[in-house]
Amino acid sequence: MLDLEIPIPNRLQDRRNDVAFAPASGFANAADTDPSLAGNRAWGYEIIGRAGTSDIGLDLVANQTISSEANLQEVMDRVVAGGACWANESLQTRATKLHEIGVAMEANRGALIEVAMAEAGKTIDQADTEISEAVDFAHYYAQRALELDKIDGASPVPFGVTVVTPPWNFPIAIPAGGALAALATGSAVIFKPAGASARCGAFIAYSGSHQSIHQRAQIRDRAIIVSSFGKTFHITGWKLGYLICPSELMKEIHKVHQFLVFSVNSVAQHALALYLERVDVASLSTFYREKRDLFRLGMANSRFELLPSQGSYFQVASYANISTEPDTDFCIRLAKEFGVAAIPLSVFNANGEDRHLIRFCYAKTDATLQAAIEKLCKI
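-> structure tokens emitted (379 positions)
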């Protein structure tokens, strides 16, 4: 008899619908792109169409180019300070971060191929396998990092700073491997890509960090950014936000906006307008990073366990090694007995779940942070 049941295909990969994730356990190799599948070929042709006019990485190279000895010294100082914080992170934190990097590179596979084609003349098959190798490095070194404290008779001591200077002809896998191996050991990294593949290197370094949608020429004319001055300048009580979009879209938004907003403090609006003319907005990420690193480095000798902090001016910490009291009670005692204010995270949970986590704000002067660190390390 004729078999009427047709089995589904074994090969179902479609890069257009990919979801990046870390291996469920242990280590598993990232899959290369299968060109025999129609969805993958369509995805590849889209990349080829963008590559000729791609601007990926141009802004990153321009912003990160070091042009003076003073600028170099500033970078070195930041690396040393940040490296001290990174070296004090637990092996589990390092492993988690490296897995996140692997996921970010996988999620940006198409963009990485695009910039490798545009700048280094790579074909899709050449760049695709390099990306798979780079993703493998991230997840492999994440697993190996967890084994560093299991070396019989030895304790791992991170090297202070590692400089990674890869060649231009392998612009993705080799630089990623060098940087990830050093990060896994707890070393800080200075990443200097070859000049002929600087855009590739810059995008690798920043592919996991925030990138504005307005940095993409293909979509900036159709994009609307909604943000908050309160979060940007740590003045949340002012309750002021802003939109950024092309003038054609803004005209339409104006028609609706007048019926949505009841009242806005005009004095605060004028104050922010004047402040924007004086402040260097591009330096804010560096400003907050230095505050974060100062606080985290100072707290390394405390009994608090600090969780990772990114894209924020808040530092979440566990006090489980100090007390078993509810987080609300602990925060009250922290303020009354030690003069340091913190927010209990249970108040943000719908069911009031208490995981003994509290939140500090490091958007403070250095002197205030140092005073807080001194008090917290005595607990």
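The first strand starts at residue 161 and ends at 164.
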